[in-house]
Design brief:
By secondary structure, this protein is an all-alpha fold. It has one domain. The protein is built from four helices and no strands. Helix 1 packs antiparallel against helix 3, helix 1 crosses helix 4 and helix 3 runs antiparallel to helix 4. The termini are far apart.
Length: about 140
């Protein structure tokens, strides 16, 4: 049983790393598309003296909002999925004379999920903007 639990822990850790990388890539690509759509606007802002921080800020806010939205959706899906699965678990446990049931998502864990996804959105946006901002030097 300990070996199976250890295998499960490693599987979940690997899946977590994969999902974090996916979130960073998706948000980074979305921010890159927004940068490309506003290329001329960014060049004009830089021509009139706008700093890199001034250009970067709206994209960082957008990445954080994307991360916040993703975290809220993940929290809602997790809460709904556990509630839906709990019905079958209670039925199965009742067959064995047990009162076992799944607990919902604790509020602290939900807030941690949302905060973590917000930070990942911010980091993904920062990486995308840092990479593409140097390419947008005015001509």
């Amino acid at each position: 049983l300990a070996a199976i639990l250890k295998l499960g822990d490693r599987f979940v850790f690997g899946l977590t790393l994969l999902l974090i990388a996916t979130l960073l890539l998706v948000i980074g690509n979305t921010i890159r598309l927004h940068i490309e759509n506003r290329r001329t606007e960014i060049e004009v802002v830089k021509l009139v003296g706008g700093t890199d921080g001034y250009v970067r800020r709206p994209f960082l806010y957008m990445g954080a909002l994307y991360g916040l939205g993703a975290g809220l959706i993940a929290w809602l899906l997790l809460a709904y999925g556990l509630g839906w699965l709990n019905e079958a678990v209670i039925d199965l446990a009742g067959l064995y004379g047990s009162d076992f049931g799944l607990a919902g998502v604790p509020t602290e864990d939900g807030f941690s999920l949302v905060l973590g996804s917000l930070l990942l959105g911010y980091i993904g946006a920062w990486l995308a903007v840092a990479r593409h901002l140097s390419e947008l030097a005015p001509r």
